[in-house]
Every structure is written in structure tokens, then in C-alpha cells.
Specification:
One of its GO terms (cellular component) is Golgi membrane. This protein has helices at 19-37, 46-58, 60-74, 83-102, 107-141, 153-174, 176-183, 188-214, 228-242, 246-257. By secondary structure, the chain is mainly alpha-helical. It is globular, with a radius of gyration of 21 Å.
Length: 259
């Protein structure tokens, strides 16, 4: 799960593996180690994962500075500890159950919603976004003089998880306290509060994603990853002018899913 590998593949004269083959073997071994640690809870550093979750809100740059430190000490950018993924999954499950409670769903409806959110919204969409960003960054953002390096898919998925966590907390936890009493009402305050939370959540996602790719020294023009901010603000203003309520749409969509 290394984000950078040499693209040379020729074997050395002494029969040793070439740089690319060696990188693949190393990545495979680290991926196996990562998946194996999922079964050993005591080997996970949950305290450090909680630290990362806190700083993704207050100072996400510090999180990516730690990624730099990992590259220097372990020769990899991507996480080698699944604790962050485990805690994110717990957050997702708890907040989805909270959504089911707020929307007055029954037990089986809540379980169905949980399966949809975990396997489609989180895993499915996450894999799609990570793959898309992996392709775009390697195709268009690698510096010409650094063509010997590429962004590995594992790091792209890590960046997605980092960006997804603040969005999850804002839309699936903080928002729960306002849905029934403020947001789902037909008043101006209702869709203003709801849409503003969406603006903040998606804005966090864009910004943390930008920080993730700008942290890689062999990428160029990563500022283009901030361009969606213009579209986001424009959509936000249009939604207020037209009275669209994104949270109300989400609630209706969730209820439709579990019918």
C-alpha cells in the first residue's frame, strides 16, 4: 500500500528483482500485514487513531505531517494500522442507527438502512472515488521529472477516509440534533441550517482531499482539487434562493431505500 513506487522493472544483473517488482512484493506484504491486523485488536493503536480524528477537524495539516513521518520511518505513506478504519466503521454504524431512530424506523428498517449506508454509501462510493482520484492523480498530476513515481491506490483510499470522517460527523451526527426540530420544517431557517451543514461538510471533504494530494512532493497543480469549491458555493446559494432542503431530500431517500 505504498503511494510511491519506481516504475523501472528491469532485473538487476545479479538476478535480483527490479525496482517495480520489488515494490510490488513489498506492497503485497504490507497489504497482507494490514489485513491480518484487522483480526488482532490488541495490535491496533486506537489512541493514535482518535488523535487523527480530532486533528482532522482542528488541524488536518498535522495529520498529513504524520504521513510524512511514516514515509521516513517505514518507507510508506499509507496507514499500516487499520485502527482508523475500524473506528470510522463504528462511527458510521452508530450514527446510522441514530438516523433510524430520528426517522422513526423500525428495527429491520434500521438494519436495512445500515447495510445500505455501510456497503453502498461508504464502501462502494469510497472505492469508486479512491479509484477515480488514483487515476486522475497519476494521469495528470505527477510532475514530469518524477515519472518514476506514482500514487498507489491504497494512499488514495486513505485520503478518502480522512476526508469522509468530518463529513460523516457533520451530516450523520451533528445534524441529527436539528432534523426533527429545525431542518425538516418548511421554514427558511430549516433549509438554511440544513444546507449550511452540507456546505461545511462537503467543504471539509474537498479541503482534506486537497491536503492529502498536496502532501505528495511528486505531484503538481494540486490546487485544482480546490476548484469544486466554486461549484459548491454556487449550488449552496441557488439552493437557498430556490428553497431546496438537501437534508429533507436525504431523509426521504433513506425512507425510500428501506421500503
Amino acid at each position: 500500500m505504498l503511494p510511491t513506487t519506481s516504475v523501472g522493472s528491469r532485473s538487476q544483473g545479479n538476478g535480483a528483482l527490479g525496482p517495480r517488482d520489488a515494490a510490488r512484493h513489498t506492497a503485497g506484504a504490507k497489504r497482507h500485514k494490514y489485513l491480518r491486523r484487522l483480526l488482532h485488536v490488541r495490535q491496533m493503536d486506537f489512541e493514535f487513531a482518535l488523535w487523527q480524528m480530532l486533528y482532522l477537524f482542528t488541524s488536518p495539516q498535522r495529520v498529513y505531517r504524520n504521513f510524512h513521518y511514516r514515509k521516513q520511518t517505514k518507507d510508506q505513506w499509507a496507514r499500516d494500522d487499520p485502527a482508523f478504519l475500524v473506528l470510522l466503521s463504528v462511527w458510521l454504524c452508530v450514527s446510522t442507527v441514530g438516523f433510524g431512530f430520528v426517522l422513526d424506523m423500525g428495527f429491520f428498517e434500521t438494519i436495512k438502512l445500515l447495510l445500505w449506508v455501510v456497503f453502498i454509501d461508504c464502501v462502494g462510493v469510497g472505492l469508486l472515488i479512491a479509484t477515480l482520484m488514483w487515476f486522475i492523480s497519476n494521469k495528470y498530476l505527477v510532475k514530469q521529472q518524477n515519472r518514476d513515481y506514482d500514487v498507489e491506490w491504497g494512499y488514495a483510499f486513505d485520503v478518502h477516509l480522512n476526508a469522509f470522517y468530518p463529513l460523516l460527523v457533520i451530516l450523520h451526527f451533528i445534524q441529527l440534533f436539528f432534523i426533527n426540530y429545525v431542518i425538516v420544517s418548511d421554514s427558511v431557517i430549516g433549509y438554511f441550517v440544513g444546507n449550511t451543514l452540507w456546505l461545511i461538510a462537503i467543504g471539509y471533504y474537498i479541503y482534506v482531499t486537497f491536503l492529502g494530494y498536496s502532501a505528495l512532493p511528486f505531484l503538481k497543480n494540486t490546487a485544482i482539487l480546490l476548484y469544486p469549491f466554486a461549484l459548491l458555493i454556487m449550488l449552496y446559494l441557488i439552493s437557498l434562493a430556490c428553497g431546496w432542503n438537501f437534508t429533507k431530500m436525504l431523509c426521504s431517500f433513506y425512507k425510500y431505500r428501506v421500503k
